[in-house]
User: Which sequence fits this backbone?
């Protein structure tokens, strides 16, 4: 199995950062957890040849390191003929509309029937290998019960180029959400670092500055409903559960959200409609094509279950 060796120099602005955070900034195609595992396995070395095994080591900035990344194994996931809506596709990438309920990549409890299984069939195995065995072609993801647009890489250069854009927060990502109550401010900016809750590992919570991961959401109210509102959330960053946790932090959790929501007086309406997911849809996705340089922008219609919910809550 081949090994790709990346020689990197940490940016001066990384001074005081943890090693794993600095590595993730220098190598945006690799996740922080992946880099931690590589360091623990002796695959990260300082310029003098000494191994950099401690992910919590505070760097000074400017250090040179070598990261040895094993080539991805053949995808273990099976190709499955699962229908996909594909608004755009070329030799380098494709944009898909993920329906609510579809898991993006295989994981415990969801070993098949995922978007990756569908992509392996649709692309006949031609997906970027950077994501490894479980996540070929996956550049970013959205939650299982969130619907909407995703871009998928077919080639490694496309994957690397898209990952750089996500890391630089230059991708235009806008969600439509239905939230409980009426926001006091019709538009606003929510800035709050997010980290996993110590009480519930499935939840993200806002933590003090210097901890967790920097997260910023801009929102504006689009429509006021009886006891709810439709908002557009524009992401400056793309963290796990970002919109869900940020809207909860200002007192307006997403309607139907089983993890962050507060059903209250809407419980009967949700039950009548059979609506059992967070009312969140990735509506807009805009980015620069990583190979051609063309600006691309895609917009997805709000799905039927959410339009029915909005109609029911309008009275």
Assistant:
């Amino acid at each position: 199995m081949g090994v790709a060796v990346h020689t990197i120099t940490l940016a001066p602005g990384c001074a005081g950062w943890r090693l794993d955070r600095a590595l993730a900034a220098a190598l945006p195609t690799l996740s922080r957890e992946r880099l931690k595992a590589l360091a623990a396995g002796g695959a990260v070395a300082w310029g003098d040849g000494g191994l950099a095994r401690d992910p919590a080591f505070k760097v000074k900035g400017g250090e040179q390191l070598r990261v040895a990344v094993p080539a991805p194994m053949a995808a273990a996931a099976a190709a499955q003929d699962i229908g996909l809506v594909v608004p755009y596709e070329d030799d380098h990438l494709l944009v898909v509309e993920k329906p609510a309920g579809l898991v993006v990549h295989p994981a415990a409890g969801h070993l098949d029937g995922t978007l990756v299984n569908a992509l392996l069939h649709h692309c006949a195995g031609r997906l970027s290998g950077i994501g490894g065995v479980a996540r070929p072609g996956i550049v970013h993801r959205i939650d299982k019960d969130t619907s909407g647009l995703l871009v998928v890489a077919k080639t490694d250069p496309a994957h690397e180029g898209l990952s750089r854009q996500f890391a630089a927060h230059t991708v235009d990502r806008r969600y439509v959400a239905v939230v409980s109550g009426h926001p006091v401010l019709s538009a606003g900016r929510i800035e709050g670092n997010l980290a996993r809750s110590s009480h519930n590992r499935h939840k993200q919570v806002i933590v003090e500055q210097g901890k967790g991961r920097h997260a910023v959401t801009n929102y504006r109210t689009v429509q006021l409903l009886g006891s709810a509102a439709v908002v557009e959330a524009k992401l400056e960053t793309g963290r796990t559960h970002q919109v869900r946790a940020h809207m909860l932090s200002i007192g307006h959790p997403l309607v139907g959200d089983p993890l962050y929501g507060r059903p209250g007086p809407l419980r009967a309406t949700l039950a009548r409609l059979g609506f059992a997911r967070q009312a969140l849809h990735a509506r807009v996705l805009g980015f620069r094509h990583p190979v051609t340089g063309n600006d691309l922008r895609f917009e997805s219609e709000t799905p039927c279950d959410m339009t029915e919910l909005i109609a029911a809550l309008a009275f």
User: Anything to note?
Assistant: Residues 129 and 136 are 5 Å apart (CA to CA). The chain has seven helices and 14 strands.
